[in-house]
Structures are given as structure tokens and as C-alpha cells.
Design a protein that fits this description.
single chain; about 525 residues; alpha/beta; 7-stranded parallel sheet; 23 strands; about 35% helix; about 20% strand; globular
Length: about 525
Amino acid sequence: MQTKFIFVTGGVVSSLGKGIISASLGRLLQARGFSVTIQKFDPYINIDPGTLNPYEHGECYVTDDGMETDLDLGHYERFTGIRTTRGNSVTTGRIYKSVIDKERRGDYLGKTIQVVPHITDEIKHRMMRVDDPWNYDFVITEVGGTIGDIESAPFMEAIRQLRWELGDRAVNVHLTFVPYLKAADELKTKPTQHSVKELQSMGIQPDILVLRTEKDLNEGIMHKVASFCNVDPDCVVQSQDLPSIYEVPVNMHRQGLDVALLRKLKMEVKQDSDMESWMHFLKLQREATREIHVGLVGKYALQDAYKSIRESLNIAGIYNGVKTKLVFVDSEELTEENIAEKLEGLQGVVICPGFGSRGIEGKIVAAHYTRTHNIPTFGICLGMQMMVIEFARNVLGYADANSREMDAETPHGVIDLMESQKAITNMGGTMRLGAYPCKLRTGSKVRSLYGAENISERHRHRYEFNNEYRDQYEAQGMKCVGVNPDSDLVEIVEIPANTWYVGTQFHPEYKSTVLKPHPLFLDFIKTITNIK
């Protein structure tokens, strides 16, 4: 079949959940046997989110091929199990850079470069996945921002042109907000009407409306929206607040979103949706009653800053029959004097990733306390490095041990730059990014958990374990059990004498999905669950 294109846009306000709706659509289409990819087009001028503070844009998600991307790609992968690439994340910055590079090479043969057609043609080229060797049944394209934003205007024009060119092969799904006014005790559809009118003014008639709401919308409201917005009644669905984001695909299916979508694309609905594995996951989620408490030791008091870690822990809890209650622990506030109080009641601790010196001493304090009190501990990226530094200070006897990222003059740089990294000055896109191989030591905990000797995991960091100290760590009980076979860089450390004390230089959360949870997160939660 020819590839079909679904464009997901949003109106009224941001953060309505376009990423969750896009991921849910992908899941529903997969359940009907279709191949799918999902991509995010962001209007900001940054080349990628790699240099953005997590407070600005949440976590930075990394693909196998080393692209720093928007966190919505994490939703896409967790819901669908697809593997995204750099082609799945496009920003205005990348679009303009590509066009400017072509102009400098003379590719346009002296033409005056304009937003239309040159910028919009570049956007269309990427929306159509022209350079992608794979042939998908569906390409879902989510456009960030809100209708009416100046930044998103070229993307809307590109969608308008593609809708005209593709005909029945393209649809627009528009997500809007229906607010509830408590004082009037009324749900208001006017913002949705204005949003659709704005979209229509750009030449785009929405095919399907998804109404984000805190309260159930009755048939009268749904029919009113359909009538005033010129949309078929069966193409208006509501996305009400649910206990879990993983219930959204089922809610959308229950309202016939996937059937309406196929009908709009002039496609025959041939088979029932196979959601058995997804429903099993939701059943496990509903049945989980016992709570466990896990601390996230980090410096970003923002849920989205550690989004993939949070979701990986929650998913692992569900498969272990427990509800994982996550408690943020601000590493800037941790001291040797208050650490026992701050971690009281926590059955496990994740020492979170990050960049820069702020809050690292608190992470080191946490690593020391959990190691000496045998509390299950999982260090990820910078978290693993803090575990290494703590061990050097308190076991190897190097009180001044540090990472050269934090102290370039430390005499014991147990975490240091690779030689190839020392001449790099640009911040963006210059780290060890994407999937790298790792060989696991026979007899180690991680080898038994993966069930394989050779694995591949995704990275996002610049500093590395200093191999000059490896023998000393091994002799004192911190084992370097995962090593890159090509560069000999240490990727995983563990302390076998502790119940669960593992640090990974990579980010395992990037590969944990709803239907295939990551083995390290699974066993970490399993260990906590089994502690009496």
C-alpha cells in the first residue's frame, strides 16, 4: 500500500498531550497490523534539545544513531517499540541550517531563498521521509507548539500543501482544550472553535478532533463541536484525564478513533484490533496494590527532567506487581548530617544523570550512604560516575578524587576525558552519543540479567571512567563488569558484596518499553520488592 500521512497539531494551549495521542495512534495502528513511524517537528531554532536546560524542555532523549531529541520520542518508543532515528526529530534550526548550507554550496543556482518555497519544501521533504529507506504504512507527524504561533507557520503551510498534494493519503488530527469554569459550572467549547478557525485560516480543515478535558463531555457538547467545526460527529473524540497515560490508547480505541482515521483515509477496516498484550499490561497495573518507595537523587525538581527513568521504574514496578512511588531527593540539599533523614523510608535509590557541578557532592553523599547501608542503588551516567568517585574517596583512600569535569586540577581524576574529546570546544552534539556495544563479564550480576554476553546501549556523556585506576577498583570490590570491546572503556560497575549496587555509564531507560521492560530496571525493582 502507499504510505499514509497523519499530521497531529494542537491548539489553545501547549502540554495537552499531542505526544501521547500520537503514540497512542501508533499503537492502535500497529495493533491492526500496520507498520508505523512517528516523528516530531519542533518550531524552536535550536538544532536539537541537546544544549537546552531540562527546566526549559524536559529530558533530552537519545536515539540509537546518536541524535539528541525531544522527550516525545521516548513516548513514541515506549508505546510502540519502534526505534526512532535522527530523521524522527526535526527542528526549525535543522531546517534552516540545511537550506542555508545548500544556498552556500550553490544548490539553488542563484535563486532568492524564501520561506515559501524553499523552507516549506525542506519541511515537506522531511515529512515525506524521502531519504528513509524503509517503507511504512503510516507516518505520523506531530508538530510542536500551538496553532497561531509565529514559529509554527511554515510547518502549517507545509502541511497545507501536502494535504492538497496527497489527497486521501493525508489527514489532520487536531488536539484542543475544552476548559471547565468552576464558577459557572460549565464546560466551554469556544476555545476549540477559535483554534479550529485559526487552523482553517491557514487552509487546513481538521479531519479529526481530540478534545482534551478534565471532565466527561456529554453528547450535546460533542455534537456542538462537530457542527461548529465542520467535522463528522464520529470524528470527534475526547481525551479525559485518566489514572495512567497507558490507558489512553484503549480509551481512543473505545471511542473509535482508529476506525474513524481509517475511514477518512478511504481504507477498509479489515480486522479487529489486537490489543491483548497491552490489555494484559493494564490488568497488571490495576492489580498492583502494594507500594514501594524509590528515591530519585538529582538536581532537577521537574518530572519531565527524568521522564524516561520515571516511566522505566513505573513499568518495571507493574511487571513486579507493585506500585512504584517515586520521591525526588534534591542532591543540592544532601549532607552527611541529613542524609539518613532525607532517605528515610526509601527502599531503593536511583542516582540520576545530569551535567555540571551543581549538586554532585550530594550525589556522592547519597552513594556513600546507600553503599555502606546496603540500600539497593542504581547509578545512571553521571550517577554511575558519582558512585565511582565516592568509592575512590572512601575505599581507595583518595580523598581528593573527582571528575575532571568538576575539578580539572584534581590529582586523582578517576573520571576523565578521552583523548579524542580534549580538543572539542562546541557543546552541542559532541559527546559520546547513541548506541555502543558492551561486553559483559561472565559471572556478573548484569550478565545474568541480560542473558547475553554482548549488548548495545545508548549513551549521552563526554567523561569516562579512567582506566588507570581499574585494577585498584577491582581489587577493592568494585568490579568493572561491562566494557566496550572496541575502546576498552568501562560501561558498567557493580559491587557484588552488596544486594544491588550497579552503575551504568549508558542510559538504559532509553530502551525500556511498555511491552519490553529493561532487565536492569526489572531486577532493581524485583530486588526491592523481595526485601523483607
